[in-house]
Structure formats: structure tokens, C-alpha cells
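Aim 2, interim progress: modelling of the iron/sulfur cluster-bound target.
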Amino acid sequence: MPLYFVTEKEWCAFLADLSRAAALYYPEPSGDDYQLTRAGEGMVPGAPFSRYRMVQSFKPLLFEPRVKVGDYFAPAEELPRMQNPQAVIGVKGCDLKALVVLDFVFTGEVADPFYARNRERTIIISSDCTAFKETCFCTCVGGKPFPEKGFDLNASPVEGGYVIHVGSPRGQGLVERHRDLFAPATEDLLRQVVKDRERLTAQLDEQQRMRGYLWGGKTKELMERVYESNVWEEEAARCVECGACNFVCPTCHCFLLSDHGRETFRRMRNWDSCQYKGFARVGGGANPRPELYQRLRNRYEKKLHFGPVVMGVNGCTGCGRCVEACIGKIDLREVLKKLSGCR
Ligand code: SF4
Ligand code: SF4
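Predicted structure of the complex, ligand included:
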């Protein structure tokens, strides 16, 4: 993978230029957090870098919350094409892991044309974490606080600028178009990147160890022995079925199709939540998961068992967004801790 060095000033010039060619989304500081924000053309405020993941993932740029998928069974080729390029910067390792799940679901044997088009038009510029939130736990589910793959370009902050890893031919093309801005990265800079990554990973591991989150990434094995646990009912007692855990989750991908209109029939696709009572209900009213604890358990099983077994990847990336969003204060880490017998 080619490696370059770019100064902070040159990186801003590169992004400003990119924002003229593509709709550019960046992490806008907001208190201690970062909000995914669209930049104006040619305008990139400061050096847009986030220390850790944004409040929201960039999932809605690929898998929209609500989209018209058809007029009276219009074939896919007649549906409107969305070709304008978009670029998102500041994507972290956890959200790139989530992309593996979304790609598995939407670009498999039967590809979803909406997702596929959005995926094709999206340039991904990721960056290393330089700190973590109280809710971050990527290392507990097999992740790392830095991107490993799935990006076009990745920026690792170093003294005076960034080491840029190229992750795809498209990323290499971007560098080639701005060749005057990028210099080869020196060995010293690469050593600094490795050192910074190791230090942050160790700090994150230490946070998890101190809190007793000790299942060591073996969530699949854990889920195989806790189906009958009463923890599910204890935890579900605080769930109010708001669906926030699903909507903030970068890997959740379930949707509901709804038909509208008579004269001008249209079919909409909307995000759905597996915590809603009607989620799995079928014609005739039969419901395989009528109880809330069954739905909560199913969400965990889908992510932590089905994910590794069927998709070959954990369905939870440890981003911690559901922990922050849950009004019932259901903390996935604490649930797993209880389930693993570490009360
Ligand atoms: S389940 Fe929670 S912590 Fe895991 S990826 Fe989804 S939002 Fe993030
Ligand atoms: S965010 Fe919490 S309260 Fe809302 S549906 Fe999810 S588990 Fe239930």
C-alpha cells in the first residue's frame, strides 16, 4: 500500500478541491463530539479531523432512512440514477467494519441497486482514532481504533500533518491528481504511526479490563450458552421500544416496504427496528417474538452469533452508539458482562 506525507495546510487544500468535485461530508466539532456535516463547495473549515468516531455513522449516505424504491413495480433500470459523487472524511475503523456487514447484505447475490449506486459514488477517507469515548469498546469485539481496510485513503495524524495510506485504485487516483501536495512518507513517520496506534490500543484494552469486559472477543461462544438466561428479561424491563439502538447502529440494516397512493402508486423503503412488536409479525397475526425480552435477545444474537457464523464478521463493531442512545440505559457491554457471569 503506497504511503505519503501531507502537511495540514496541503491536506486542507486537497479537501477543498475535493469538495468542488463531490458532496463532501466531514466531522464538525460539537462540544466533545463530532457531527457528520456537509461542507459547502470549496469550503473546508480548519483541518477537519475527529479524535474518535462521529455521533452518527455515515450509514444514511449509503442506506437512506427512507427512499422511494418504485412506482408500480418499476424495474430497477427505470429507477432514478444517483450519480453525483460524494466523499466522507473522518470515518473510523469501527464504521469501516460496519461496511462489511452492509456490503454483505446489500451487494450479495441479489444486489440492492440503491445501495450499490451509493456505494459506487462514495469516496471514503478514514482516519486513525487519537482518543476514545467512554462508550467505545471496539477491541472487545475484534476491532482496532484505526482503519485496516475498506478505505480509499486513510489519514494518520503525525507532527505537522498526516501520513496517508492509499487503500484503493480510486484513492491512488486522487493522490495522482494532486501529486504536488503529497511527498513520500519517511520511515520515522511510519514508526510514529505504529507507536501511536499501539499506545491507543493498549489504553483502550486497559479501559475494558478495568471495567471487567473480559469476554475477549468471543461473543459467539458466549451467545451459545446464554439463550435461557434471565438476564434478557431483567434488561428488557427497561426497554421502551423506541428503536434508537437500531437507528444509530452502523450495522443495522432491516427495512420495511410500504405502499402508498392509488392513482400514483409508490413503494417506499423505510428503516425498521427489530425491537418493535410488529417487526416479525406475519399475515394472520402470528408473531414469533411477541415478548420484548425475545426481541432484545434476538438483536444480540443477530449481531454477535449470526454475524460471525453467517457473515464471517461480528455484527457489533463496538462503536458504543447504542449505549449512548438508549433511553432505558441498556448498555450492551454491561449486558455481556452479566451474561458472561461477571456481575
Ligand atoms: S450494537 Fe451498538 S455498539 Fe455495536 S455496532 Fe451497533 S450501535 Fe455500535
Ligand atoms: S434504544 Fe434502548 S429503549 Fe430504545 S428500543 Fe433500543 S434497547 Fe429499547
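The chain has two domains: 3-64+72-211, 219-253+274-339. Residues 239-245, 275, 325-328, 330 surround iron/sulfur cluster (ligand 2) (CB under 6 Å).
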